[in-house]
Structures are given as C-alpha cells and as structure tokens.
Specification:
The protein is mainly beta. The chain has one domain. Helices cover 12% and strands 36% of the residues. A hairpin with a 5-residue loop joins β1 and β2. The radius of gyration is 16 Å and the shape is globular.
Length: 146
C-alpha cells in the first residue's frame, strides 16, 4: 500500500468525531450545550462559558472562503503543486473557521467569499475534510442524476 501524501492525524479521544464524521458525510464539530457555542479545534471544555457539556454535532457542511494562499513550492514530492490552503468560515457561528485545502477548482477561479461545500478524503478510519466550490457539487449532482 503506498504511503499517503497527506500526514494523517491520530485518532485520540478528543478529536475522533471530527476525523471520522466524514464516514457519514458529516463535518462534525463540538457544540456546547450550555451556551450553544461551536468549538474548533476541539477542547475539553467550552472556552466561552467553561462548561463541560459538549456534544459532537454535524454542521451544515457549507462554508465561505475567508482567506487563502496558493502554494507553488513542492514541500512534499508526493503532493502536486500548486495547491490551495484556505481558511473557511462556517455559517453556524461568526468566526467559526477551520484551515483546509480547497480542491476541485482552478487556482484562477478561487476568490475570497466564494461558497464552498465539504467533501472528504479517506485514509483508513480518518476522513480529512476538504472544501470545494459549492457550484461544482451541484453540477456533479445534476450530471449524475441525468
């Protein structure tokens, strides 16, 4: 079996649901039941109200591109360049952001504010959340239905 180009995280107790939610097509984040604050990266208690009543819940799976950079340097020869590192903001909460790769899109078509949708890259039990333009997802659904 070839070694993956991506460094795959270990599945510890605190982040397991985040990395395995993709098996169901769900982007899972920790959600405080006391104050309804979404938490990423995962923590053992809510950084807002300090309660420990946290639950893993699925998000909408959509996002807006907040910022990005295009990498042209081949740091890992197994990863083709250019590739895009992006910070996406989820609509569940202002400021709820995560760092990811933007995929299935020409570098020239990427712009701040574009609508994105999650998809997952599987590595064994780990499902890495990546984001692609929401329009490409709708186009693929239409093509596969027809």
């Amino acid at each position: 079996m070839p070694e993956p180009a991506r460094i795959v995280p270990s599945l510890d107790g605190l982040s397991r649901a985040f990395w395995t939610g993709g098996s169901r097509g769900e982007l899972m984040l920790s959600h405080c039941q006391a104050c309804q604050y979404w938490i990423h990266p995962p923590k053992p208690l809510c950084p807002r109200c300090h309660e420990r009543d946290l639950r893993w819940e699925p998000t909408s799976g959509v996002a807006t591109l907040f910022s990005y950079t295009v990498n042209f340097k081949a740091w890992n020869p197994k990863v083709p360049v250019p590739y895009v590192l992006g910070i996406v903001e989820l609509p569940e909460q202002a400021g709820l952001r995560l760092t990811t790769n933007i995929v299935n899109c020409s570098v020239d078509d990427i712009e701040i504010g574009m609508r994105l949708r999650v998809n997952f890259e599987q590595h064994g039990e780990v499902f890495v959340p990546l984001f692609e333009p929401a329009a490409s997802v709708e186009r693929l659904r239409t093509e596969s239905a027809g």
